[in-house]
């Protein structure tokens, strides 16, 4: 896969001296879903704004589809659809008017069939002649998506698309994203819902304090950083870990009712069977055994600990 | 650089014109109504007690000035509101991220604002025929001044709309700057009626050149040479375009 969006050494310092982005570099592959995770104020929106042309970088270079976003902004921007975080819509316009305005603004000729398809997909067709101020919050967000898709972009930026959206609509939104992905649209998603990133993304980027902390395949990230632990419930309360088991680095929790063992699931020998045998020999009776894997959320919290502003 | 994105110009223009038609009452009826009141009060009531001004009845004399008064304020407020509103509600993000140059975005908004004020000016001109005897000596010149005024002051309004940080500021320039300039710009009198000193002061008022040129196209009466009027309005247009170019280039009040 080739990079459709390429960000190189982008810095952004605001007039007040605040450094929103510090030498950010990032390649986004065509057709992937990249989730950018980060605490509030980490620089997610600033990065998107620079790629889309709403803000200017203090230094560095961005290309979209090989086109420089400053020198060849027309070609670059034609490829981009942006769904902003805030619900910014003309309250008195009808849905259809505002969507066809977006299409025209991006230089595409009238195509009623395409707009109808988008509006139907987003279940907005019935509301096409409704004034936007009469729509619910969730519907308004769909209008923003419809606007972004009106000119058939290759890259779609979704800035916190499911913030403040109810569960049902969030699931609908995820379905829409999957559908777009299946049509080859590259999606860059910012979110602070870890669940969303875990569910949707092919790759995950973590950004904090204006710096990209890591970008990794989601599965690899989970494997690499995901600690696995074996939790052994004991039939009877234990007062301490027997001497014979000291090599395992076990910890006794829950008032002596549970023993926890950390292991690496990718190793050839996890040591689980040996441990279970040794536990038996030490005279500890087990009532249950379960494994737990740390979620993306734990990884995220670990990486950005103390960095949230 | 690829060809101009004329589709974007059209999209903005159509969108803005739809807004005009949606708010037809306040957009068109209100200015026509207020100008008609001017005709009744100044033209008929007061005008009947005033001698002719340079051979033209006072009611007729003020018609070009009245049209200018409305066209100028309408152009400025329409264009200012047109670009201020997206800024205010946040939809400006779309304009800034669109594959459209400053020229195209400006053209869309300014042409729409100019069209609207042109239509209002035309309606007022039509209304004037009901109140006074009018003849237009140089119709083509009249049209030229008319169109140029609509365009140049829509450009000025566009700049004000970008500059304005709140609704008060949006009202401020039309109220505090434009209105005095228009009233002191010879809309209701001939500059020659003023004492010498004030005549000199008046020549620093750009509106004088507009009203003078416009009135000349009606009655052949001018306070300043017609060529100078034309030059003044073209220069003003040029300055406005230059300022807008700078605004988009630097992103002033638009881009972070």
Automatic annotation (TrEMBL), chain A:
Database matches in CDD domains: ABC_DR_subfamily_A
Coiled coil region boundaries: none
Gene3D superfamilies to which the protein is assigned, alphabetical: P-loop containing nucleotide triphosphate hydrolases
GTP-binding recorded as keyword: no
Name under which the protein is recorded: ABC transporter ATP-binding protein
Keyword vocabulary terms for this entry: ATP-binding, Nucleotide-binding, Transport
MF GO annotations: ATP binding; ATP hydrolysis activity
Presence of keyword ATP-binding: yes
Domain of life where this protein originates: Bacteria
Stretches assigned to the ABC transporter domain: 5-234
